[in-house]
Write a structure and sequence with these properties.
Oligomer: single chain
Helix content: 25-40%
Distance between the termini: 10 Å
Radius of gyration: 25 Å
Number of strands: 27
Number of helices: 20
Largest sheet: 8 strands, antiparallel
Bound molecules: fructose -6-phosphate
Length: about 600
């Protein structure tokens, strides 16, 4: 979380820094700041609490000049979102922006306090500035001072340093957090991702973990974790693919929900040709004895749906864990097993650490990743892109359904490789899967009904989502989306678990959303729904027309989803989960695309 940018440019840099920060705002939006070096070599900074617009307003009344600068958009870890805690942090001649957590900052701060350097903020980052300033006070050059500081830091970081009096120098480093270098003509850039640099350059170097870089306008010198000079490739990125605009929609989320039929079509066309599944070499599941899936949040829920598919279609034993638990549990892994890591950003710190734990212990690591240049994409044996395109809204929608599409393809491949389905069976399932984009398109017609239902949900303090089988994780996703967007407390439950506790919560004020297509488990879920209604619970039943006509008596509202899609229908049922949360947030007036306290890319654990 937090986005950083650094520019040694040929124009006034403050507007460019703000433009780049706009593109990084998905990483954090508690506060923002920039520092520049003016024509006389003077370092100065401006910081503001809240959204980036407050910083740009500040820069209108208190402009900063200069062609060199660094900038930051913050997601608070240490210290509240105040101006004092906002980056850049400046001590002496050095200013620093940071993404990550310096784990040994308390120990460093004690040492600095003892040496007469008093902290001004509550942040871990300030320690980096203080330590570097101390090294410079002791006579080290800016580069030596930054290097000496880096050698003392523990934790995860991407850092950019700027020095008073040094208008043609920037030092940057990464360990655990992403950082790229951008190459221009007589201009150089560093940033948390290539999207931030897209307005300035399409020539990008992805730094490796432990690298630091000394940047001037003429170019960059990169050094590895052992301080040896190294050369890293320059990649040409597709700037068009980083275009970010709302395309006429009120929010990115509305646009991203509506894009799902198209991107699902793209992803299925990528992996399915005629009746053949096309995957990279070596993706043969016949000797795999177990699949271990690891992810966080919505990506975890995609894995949760896929667990049903892998087990039921392919008879493949499947473990699923949230990355933050997996990484410290030290689970034994079979060397004949595969590890599957699901992530939109490909940078989630816990998922990345889980991948690093599994590497060497399992036969193959697979990434199901939306950002193709991300750390998880680079560090897995096989990276499978989800091809959802740039997802800007912090809450995931199209990335989730595209993850499901890739996982569905993998489950079918596993089922076929393991002899659980023959060619005809595969063709039949693929026909169901190929129908999904059109069914999702029909499900988009539920927008208006969801907007009306949202008026009711927005009055509630708590909402319960129930589902069974692979619709249980869809219910969990409905609850997750609703809480993160509307701040209403919501819980998802396996409907069979209702009687084991949550039924105590049911009263006439509690909306209960039941996700139940007319499938083999329908009757069971409907029985649970009857138990809710017998206790005056207010039910919204989301089913197909058959389901609604069979079980619709006594419900408060029904929402019809299209029929079809076979076992892959959870992808279709994700749409009303998204729309209910979206419209409830709109009804409550919360910030849909940037909900409070959240960040799109969770690069700290
Ligand atoms: C919820 C949401 C998050 C992410 C989670 C993992 O709408 O978007 O729960 O799914 O933070 O992020 P990635 O997929 O980038 O690893």
């Amino acid at each position: 979380m937090c986005g950083i940018i650094g520019i040694l440019g040929s124009h006034q840099v403050a507007p460019q820094l703000v433009e780049a920060l706009k593109r990084l705002e998905y990483r954090g939006y508690d506060s923002a700041g920039v520092a520049t070096i003016d024509g006389e070599g003077r370092l100065d900074r401006r910081r503001a609490v809240g959204k980036l617009v407050h910083l740009s307003d500040r820069l209108v009344t208190e402009p900063l000049s200069g062609r060199s600068g660094i900038g930051h958009t913050r997601w608070a870890t240490h210290g509240a979102a105040t101006e004092i805690n906002a980056h850049p942090h400046r001590r002496g001649r050095v200013a620093v922006v940071h993404n990550g957590i310096i784990e040994n900052f308390r120990e460093l701060r004690e040492e600095l306090v003892a040496a007469g350097y008093a902290p001004e903020s509550d942040t871990d980052t300030e320690t980096v500035a203080m330590l570097t300033a101390k090294h410079m006070d002791e006579g080290k050059s800016p580069v030596e001072a930054a290097r000496a500081t880096l050698s003392r830091l523990q934790g995860a970081f991407a850092l950019a340093f700027l020095f008073d009096g040094e208008g043609d120098l920037m030092v940057a480093a990464r360990k655990g957090s992403p950082l790229v270098v951008g190459h221009g003509e007589g201009e150089m850039f560093v940033g948390s991702d290539a999207i931030a640099l897209a307005p300035f350059t399409d020539r990008i170097t992805y730094l490796e973990d432990g690298d630091h870089v000394v940047v001037t306008r003429e170019g960059s010198d990169i050094f590895d974790a052992d301080a040896n000079p190294v050369s890293r490739d320059i990649a040409q990125i597709d700037v068009g693919a980083t275009a970010i605009d709302k395309g006429g929609y009120r929010h990115f989320m509305a646009k991203e929900i509506a894009e799902q039929p198209a991107v699902l079509g793209d992803v299925l066309n990528h992996y399915v040709k005629d009746d053949r599944i096309v995957l990279p070499d070596g993706m043969d599941f016949s000797t795999v004895d177990r699949l271990t899936m690891v992810a966080c949040g919505t990506a975890y829920l995609a894995g949760h749906v896929a667990k049903y598919w892998f087990e039921q279609l392919a008879g493949l034993p499947c473990d699923l864990d949230v990355a933050s638990e997996f990484r410290y549990r030290e689970p034994p892994l079979s060397e004949k097993s595969w590890g599957l890591f699901i992530s939109q950003s490909g940078e989630t710190a816990d998922t990345l650490a889980a991948l690093h734990y599994a590497r060497g212990k399992v036969a193959r690591t697979i990434g199901v990743v939306n950002v193709g240049t991300s750390a998880i994409a680079r560090d897995t044996d096989t990276a499978l892109p989800t091809l959802a395109g740039v997802e800007v809204c912090v809450a995931s929608s199209k990335a989730f359904t595209c993850q499901l599409a890739v996982l569905a393809v993998l489950a079918l491949k596993a089922a076929h490789d393991r002899g659980c389905i023959d060619d005809a069976g595969l063709a039949a399932h693929l026909a169901d899967l190929r129908a999904i984009p059109a069914l999702v398109n029909q499900a988009l017609n539920s927008a208006e009904a969801c907007a009306e239902l949202a008026e009711w949900l927005s009055e509630a303090d708590d909402v319960l989502f129930l589902g069974r089988g692979p619709l249980y994780p869809v219910a969990l996703e409905g609850a997750l989306k609703l809480k993160e967007l509307s701040y209403i407390h919501a819980e998802g439950y396996a409907s069979g678990e209702l009687k084991h506790g949550p039924i105590a919560l049911i009263d006439q004020n509690m909306p209960v959303v039941v996700v139940a297509p007319r499938d083999a488990l329908f009757e069971k879920t409907v029985s649970n729904m009857q138990e809710v209604m017998a206790r005056h619970g207010q039910v919204l039943l989301i089913s197909d027309n058959d389901g609604l006509s069979e079980a619709g008596d006594g419900i408060r509202a029904g929402l019809a989803m299209p029929e079809g899609g076979g076992v892959f229908r959870p992808i279709v049922y994700a749409v009303p989960m998204q729309y209910l949360a979206y419209y409830t947030a709109v009804a409550k007036g919360t910030d849909v695309d940037q909900p409070r306290n959240l960040a799109k890319s969770v690069t700290v654990e």
